[in-house]
Amino acid sequence: MHCKNLNPQHYFVLPVFYHVDPSDVRNQRGSFSDAFAKHEKNFKHDVEKVKSWRTALTQAANSSGWDSHVTRPEARLIDEIVKDISKKLNCGTLCAYLKDFVGMERRIEHIMSLFQKENPDLLKLGIWGMAGIGKTTLAEAIFNHVSNGFESVCFLPNVRESEEHGRLFELCQKFLSTVLEDAFLRTGFPGRWFW
Fold this sequence. Notes:
Layout lengths: L1 H5 L9 E2 L4 H6 L3 H12 L4 H16 L3 E2 L6 H25 L5 H15 L16 H12 L12 H6 L3 H20 L8
Parallel strand pairs: 1-2
Helix pairs in contact: 5-7
C-alpha cells in the first residue's frame, strides 16, 4: 500500500480475501481486532507503525479485490486471479513501452483486430515497408501484447541483418537458449543443452 500511495501509476494492489470477510479487514474486527490489540502492546514504543498497518488494511479492504466466499470453487478463483494479474501486467508493460511512440496504440489495435475479429485463424503476419518506419518497433509491441498467452516466447529482431553480418548462429543460440530454458523451468528436465 505504501508503494501504491507513493506512485499509483507503477503499482497496483489486488487484495485476495481468503476465508476472511473484507469488512472484518476494513474495520479490524474479529481476529484482526485481537491481533491489533497484541500489536499495540508489543509496539508501545512505535504507535505510528501500528496506525499505519491499520490504515493499510483499511485501504486494501476498500480496494477492488477477490473474495474466496464469492468466487468458488478455489480453482476458479485462482484462474480468475491469474488472468486478472496477467492482463494488468501486460497492459502495464504495453502502456509503459508505448508512451513515447505517437500513433502506436492505434496501429496495434488495428493489427490485433486482424488476429481477433477479421481472421481468428491467422497464424502469421508480415509487416512490410521501407527502412526506419518502425516495423521492428511495431512487431515488438505486438509481441509484448500477445506473448503472455504462450509457454515460451523469444523476440528475434533484425534476422536478415544478423544473417548478412554472419551472426545467424548467435541468433539461433539465443532462440534455443530462451525456449529450452523456459521448457527446463516448466518441466524441471535435468538435461544439459549443447549447440
